[in-house]
Write a structure and sequence with these properties.
Largest sheet: 2 strands, antiparallel
Shape: globular
Keywords: Cell membrane, Membrane, Transmembrane, Transmembrane helix, Transport
GO molecular function: transmembrane transporter activity
Radius of gyration: 20 Å
Strand order of the largest sheet: 1-2
Structural class: mainly alpha
Main location: membrane
GO cellular component, one term: plasma membrane
CATH superfamily: ABC transporter involved in vitamin B12 uptake, BtuC
Family: Belongs to the binding-protein-dependent transport system permease family. FecCD subfamily.
């Protein structure tokens, strides 16, 4: 099937549309979940501008910013994970594991600790502080990890090991910052590090939306090169792919997306790892489709947030739920890979 001269996998297209419909439905559940008696028809009517004053307050001021934040953060992490996993040809090479998320967290926590415990994007003098610091931290970490893992090419195993080391180092520095901080700053940074959507607002959501609108089309231009890259560097070069330019674009897109998500909601773990792998399996493709990975990331985050605040006896940060789900999946994948290597 071809759309605008580009070949589109019909199965991937159908699965993407189905997942998008599920995302919309779960997002509506997220809007109506809570102490009020709001129903889905009430939420739809309010979103179309026909709700009462009380319903508009509940939907637009209390519920929708959090749901929208979950959607855009999950989408950004899903696409970032799909880019790094495909680029490195390894499902373990995600922003969480190769140090990008920790770099963003390091920059953001430094701003939080040294600014009096204020972390909401757009709050006072920090209108650019947290997202800018997170982006710089992620970019610098990615450059260091990439440079150290280069040895006549980027080996995914070396990239992961160096990334794990960078993550451990940065997390140690983050803990040192928190240990030396005042009580208010330490409490704020600790809550933010858990990956929470409780303090998210429209001023936190808008920058992530802008980043998605700018970066996603750029990432989509690399789809052909990502597909060819699965065959190896020599084949990519032989088919006319500007390899170094392609790598820089892919890494930059993944880093900016991950940094935007982290600056808005903190390091929500395992979304960049789990969402692309689920997307790849349900689509039946050799690599994670970018848009489907983004929608799957949005679905996982908004679903986890719904569980965290509506189905548990007391609300917990969404990052705790994603870690509970993602960690066993990581263990299963590692075990499966080990078994495969043993059989060989």
């Amino acid at each position: 099937m071809r759309i605008l001269g580009r070949r589109i996998d019909l199965q991937v297209l159908v699965v993407t549309v189905v997942v998008l419909v599920v995302v919309v439905f779960v997002a509506l559940l997220g809007i109506v979940a809570g102490s009020s008696s709001l129903t889905i028809p009430d939420a739809l009517r309010t979103l179309l501008g026909a709700g009462t004053g009380a319903e508009q307050l509940i939907v637009f001021e209390l519920r929708l910013p959090r749901v929208a934040g979950a959607l855009v953060v999950g989408c950004a992490l899903g696409i970032a994970g799909a880019l790094t996993q495909t680029f490195a040809r390894n499902p373990l090479a995600t922003p969480d594991i190769i140090g990008v998320t920790s770099g963003a967290a390091f920059g953001a926590v430094a701003v939080i600790v040294f600014s009096g415990g204020v972390y909401a994007v757009g709050a006072g003098t920090l209108s650019l502080g947290v997202p800018l610091a997170a982006t710089l931290g992620a970019l610098i970490t990615a450059a260091i990890v990439y440079g150290l893992s280069w040895k006549g090419g980027v080996d995914s195993f070396r990239l992961i090991l160096i990334g794990i080391g960078a993550t451990a180092t940065l997390m140690g520095l983050i803990r040192w910052f928190i240990a030396r901080a005042q009580l208010v700053e330490a409490a704020t940074a600790s809550q933010w590090l858990a990956g929470s959507l409780s303090g998210i607002s429209w001023t936190s959501v808008v920058p992530v939306v802008v980043v998605l609108l700018i970066v996603t089309p750029i990432a989509m231009t690399q789809t052909f090169a990502l597909e060819i890259g699965r065959l190896g560097d020599d084949m990519s070069t032989g088919l006319g792919v500007a390899l170094q330019r392609h790598r820089i674009i892919v890494i930059a897109c993944a880093v900016v997306l991950a940094a935007a998500a982290v600056s808005a909601a903190g390091p929500i773990e395992f979304i960049a790892f789990v969402a692309p792998q689920i997307a790849r399996r349900i689509a039946g493709t050799g690599r994670p489709p970018l848009l489907l990975s983004g929608f799957m990331g949005a679905l996982v985050v908004v679903g986890a947030d719904l569980i965290a605040r509506a189905l548990l006896p007391s609300p917990v940060p969404v990052g705790i739920i994603t870690a509970i789900v993602g960690a066993p999946y990581l263990i299963w994948l590692l075990t499966r890979r080990k078994e495969r290597e043993t059989l060989r």
